[in-house]
Write a structure and sequence with these properties.
Blueprint (H helix, E strand, L loop, with lengths): L5 H28 L5 H28 L23 E2 L6 E2 H18 L10 H24 L8 H6 L7 H19 L15 H20 L7 H29 L4 H15 L8 H25 L7 H19 L19 H31 L6 H6 L1 H6 L6 H7 L7 H12 L1
Antiparallel strand pairs: 1-2
Length: about 450
């Protein structure tokens, strides 16, 4: 093994742990947004992704995503199946070498959270067994090629988006955000609308849980973006402060939009805005100045808030707004780079239109966006359709109405019967009982 940089290695390992926490954070974020009768099912969809994608990644996913490329930038080779020949290998620039297994772990957490994101598009209505099959197929057939296009680390001879096209994407605006958004749209269209969509109230059942989940996502995103520098250096610092700035401005922009449009600023809005800002800065965090991050966060907060409202007009049921937040947010970030990317922030980057770089970068960013969205939508449509035609993707109507927690998992998130039996719903008010016992003791 080449001489490793211990500081860089420690930072990438910590960042991997931070990104891993994003999936439980997403589970809480999504779990609070659904109705109470399907809260556990939502949590289970994220946690099963954490288990399944790990196995897919270490067996064949990593080698296809980051193996040596001889395909013109579209897929890696099979030489590291089962992580063979990775234990004594390093990756990274000279002087910044880290163990390959640290990189494997860091990128694994990206694969997990991206796959888990898709559960939000089909919440409240999916067979759990079908979700298991979908996670295996989608993580291997859609995420792995997308990751190779955007992230491949092969001595500068990797995926076509970064190494051949020359588009900028620091931490996953294409492979994570646009990929998940386009895939979520295809998935929602194939699976269909929830029973009662547009008719029944489908409000979040636990907003404190939503805010807790959003806070964990925000926290983990600092590792997601800054860790993508693969070194404890100035670029990581730029990425981290830009992530904080964009998430903050996205949150404030979203609730400002709400206040102007509806007269009220909501807790769901501030949580969604923070996520939208973090999404949009993901591809840009290492290539823009802090003022650029402010602009991207503001744009994401307003544009994503508007985009979320359009699903009712357009008639597709993306339950938890994966398309409007992640798909649209990813587009905002990628396209914004064509305007505000600045070499002053990162000499390895490029200048956008506002910094004298002309329209060249903007054109490359648009090509990357369109290619990723088209691939993800078509591939996901095919996978979801095959599952629908074979084992069925949709839960039975009776199960959907009763709630997926009891019908799919034989559990309930809240023991309401226990509360009723021992509290004010089942008899005397607990304070009255306490006062009565105190009087008897006296």
């Amino acid at each position: 093994m080449d001489q490793i940089n211990t500081g860089d290695t420690a930072w990438v390992l910590i960042s991997g742990a931070l990104v891993m926490l994003m999936t439980p954070g997403l589970a809480l974020f999504y779990g609070g947004m659904v109705r109470a009768k399907s809260a556990l099912n939502m949590l289970m969809m994220s946690f099963t992704a954490l288990g399944i994608v790990t196995i897919v990644w270490i067996t064949i996913g990593y080698t296809l995503a980051f193996g040596t490329d001889s395909s013109g930038g579209f897929i890696g080779d099979l030489k590291q199946i089962g992580l063979v020949d990775t234990l004594n290998q390093t990756v990274g620039a000279p002087g910044h070498k880290i163990p390959m297994l640290a990189f494997v772990m860091f990128q694994l957490t990206f694969a997990v959270v991206t796959t888990a994101l898709l559960s939000g598009a089909i919440a409240d209505r999916t067979k759990f067994s079908a979700w298991i099959v979908f996670v295996i197929a989608w993580s291997l057939l859609v995420y792995v090629p997308a990751a190779h296009w955007a992230f491949s680390f092969d001595g500068g001879q990797g995926g076509w988006i970064g190494d051949r096209l020359g588009a900028l994407d620091f931490a996953g605006g294409t492979a994570v955000e646009i990929n998940s958004g386009a895939s979520a749209l295809a998935l929602a269209l194939v699976v269909g609308k929830r029973i009662g969509f547009r008719k029944d109230p489908m409000r979040p059942h636990n907003l404190p849980l939503v805010l807790l989940g959003a806070g964990l996502l925000w926290f983990g995103w600092l590792g997601f973006n800054a860790g993508s520098a693969l070194a404890a250096n100035g670029t990581a610092a730029v990425a981290m402060i830009n992530t904080q700035i964009a998430a903050a401005t996205g949150a404030l922009a979203w609730i400002s939009y709400e206040k102007v449009k509806d007269g009220k600023a909501t807790t769901l809005g501030i949580a969604s805005g923070a996520v939208a800002g973090a999404v949009a800065i993901t591809p840009a965090c290492g290539f823009v100045t802090p003022l650029g991050a402010v602009a991207i966060g503001l744009l994401a907060g307003v544009i994503c808030a508007w985009a979320v409202s359009q699903k009712y007009r357009l008639g597709f049921d993306d339950s938890l707004d994966v398309v409007g937040v992640h798909g649209v947010g990813g587009l905002v970030g990628m396209i914004s780079l064509g305007f505000v990317a600045a070499i002053i922030a990162n000499p390895a980057g490029k200048n956008g239109l506002f910094y004298g770089g002309g329209f060249s970068l903007l054109g490359k960013q648009l090509i990357a966006c369109v290619a990723m969205a088209a691939f993800a939508f078509i591939a996901t449509w095919i996978i979801a359709t095959v599952i629908t035609k074979t084992m069925g993707f949709r839960a039975d109507p009776e199960d959907e109405i009763a709630g997926l927690d009891t019908t799919q998992h034989a559990e309930s998130a809240y023991d309401l019967a226990g509360v009723a039996g021992g509290g004010m719903l089942g008899g005397a008010h607990p304070l009255s009982a306490m006062r009565r016992h105190q009087g008897e003791d006296n």
